[in-house]
Design goal:
Layout: E1 15-16, E2 30-31, E3 42-48, E4 57-62, E5 66-72, E6 78-84, E7 89-95, E8 104-109, E9 114-118, E10 130-133, E11 137-144, E12 153-159, E13 164-169, E14 181-185, E15 189-195, E16 204-209, E17 218-222, E18 234-237, E19 245-249, E20 258-263, E21 266-270
Antiparallel strand pairs: 1-2, 3-4, 4-5, 5-6, 7-8, 8-9, 9-10, 11-12, 12-13, 13-14, 15-16, 16-17, 17-18, 19-20, 20-21
Length: about 270
């Protein structure tokens, strides 16, 4: 997940660096779509096989241009299929929300208090987006089955006029979602993520605040009861470190997800001791 809005490189282009198979990458910068893809204000990029041809494809998110699908040709190059234009895109995710075997796209948006879901057709194209209301202007989105019903759910980290929130939208299994449940914060929520923090096989909720008023940033989490509802907020202060983007992964192999976070030009890790 990413909320970065700096150019991908100095030429405002998207590029591929081929893997040498030994953990190194070629020095040759290969333009993805020479002269065809307008790079304006990149927010995120995700990779998966959208048309089931065995070749990885790219879904590119641009803050001003919206969502663009690039189908892989198998040689490091891509061809553009379709684009859904809107402004305010901050983060994107890929998952099969309607259980038809095809990957769909979700995009968060900080220009409206809504997120958009684009259902995939299986050939690399996306249907027109459907909007769902959340508790603020969303900076991030994450996907997972929170209540264990087999349907994928969504969370967003949001900014409000005087506060922030984390929104939970339960999936219905058909590409649609129920009304948002909002967990409110005193400050803007910069990023939110799902992960099994306590090893009970339920997805818990973690987020970081990004205060713009000189308050101390925080890292907070709520443990899942097992049914998609969450307990009380646990929190610790981050002193002056504002974490802009958070991801969860088991970094030390103990079976519990740890925290990886970006702050400015620095990368931080936090070991899970819950």
């Amino acid at each position: 997940m990413s909320a970065s809005r700096s150019p991908l490189n100095s030429n405002d282009s998207a590029s591929v660096f081929l893997n040498g198979g030994d953990g190194t990458f070629s020095n040759e910068e290969i333009p993805v779509l020479p002269g065809e893809l307008e790079i304006n204000n990149p927010s995120d990029v995700v990779i998966d096989d959208l048309n089931s041809d065995g070749v990885d494809d790219v879904v590119y998110g641009d803050y001003n241009q919206g969502v663009t699908v690039l189908l892989g040709l198998g040689n490091g190059l891509f061809t553009k299929t379709n684009q859904h234009q809107f402004s305010g895109l901050t983060d994107i995710g890929l998952a099969d929300f309607n259980q038809d075997g095809d990957l769909d796209v979700v995009a968060s948006n900080d220009s409206s208090q809504k997120l958009s879901v684009f259902l995939g057709s299986g050939d690399g194209t996306l249907a027109t987006g459907t909007e769902f209301s959340v508790g603020g202007y969303s900076n991030s989105v994450d996907v997972g089955d929170v209540n264990g019903d087999g349907n994928l759910d969504l969370i967003t980290g949001n900014t409000g006029y005087s506060s922030g929130s984390v929104s939970l939208l339960l999936g219905l299994g058909n590409g649609s979602f129920g009304a948002a449940t909002n967990y409110f914060e005193d400050d803007s929520v910069a990023s939110a993520a799902l992960g099994d923090l306590d090893g009970d096989h339920d997805l818990d909720l973690l987020w970081t605040t990004d205060p713009g008023s000189g308050l101390v940033p925080t890292l907070s989490w709520r443990l899942n009861s097992g049914s998609g509802s969450f307990g009380e907020t646990n929190q610790f202060l981050l002193e002056e470190t504002e974490l802009e983007q958070v991801e969860l992964a088991d970094l030390d192999g103990d079976g519990y997800p740890d925290l990886i976070a970006l702050s400015g030009g620095s990368l931080f890790t936090f070991r899970n001791e819950i």
